[in-house]
Write a structure and sequence with these properties.
six-stranded mixed beta sheet; 8 strands; globular; mainly beta; Lyase, Ornithine Decarboxylase, Chain A, domain 1
């Protein structure tokens, strides 16, 4: 019984994982470029496997279909494109052969359902790209803002 009494004085922690958190996050990203190479179209975003990939970015976990919602404009038609990030790595591919509405440079896209294992499981410091800000909302109210600190963020001012 003494062991139980000691246990009651501690604290309990748990990792909530996908069951509770998967649908809680939405990543906002900006279209940096729309490139054509032969018959292929590439949509280059300011995010990639360093923010969103987690283990799926390394090919360790199969990636589910990517949903992209254009928050800037609703355009008619459909394109098929490879959606890639800004890193100089062939691994920085978020979707191949993605059917989507046409986008333009500067469009802001939303990627829903990234709450579990999104940023925290990604290659955050890879190639020293800027760490994105995370914002927590309750309804329409901002509850908290934070940026994960990586060593390279300390040297951005120089």
């Amino acid at each position: 019984m003494e062991g139980l009494a000691d246990a009651r004085q501690g604290s309990a922690c748990f990792e909530s994982g996908r069951y509770l958190c998967a649908s809680s996050g939405t990543l906002l990203t900006t279209v940096l470029d729309v490139k054509k190479a032969g018959m292929k179209t590439f949509i280059v975003l300011d995010t990639g496997i360093h923010h969103l990939g987690g283990m799926s970015g390394l090919g360790r976990i199969p990636r589910a279909a990517l949903t992209l919602i254009n928050l800037t404009a609703k355009r008619e038609g459909e394109i098929v494109a490879d959606v890639v990030g800004p890193l100089c790595s062939p691994l920085d591919s978020l979707a191949r052969g993605q059917k989507m509405s046409p986008v333009e440079v500067g469009d802001v896209l939303a990627v829903p359902n990234v709450g579990a294992y999104g940023l925290t499981a990604s290659l955050l410091g890879f190639l020293s790209h800027t760490t994105p800000e995370e914002v927590a909302y309750r309804g329409h109210e901002v509850v908290e803002k934070w940026v994960f600190q990586c060593w390279h963020n300390l040297y951005r001012a120089f």
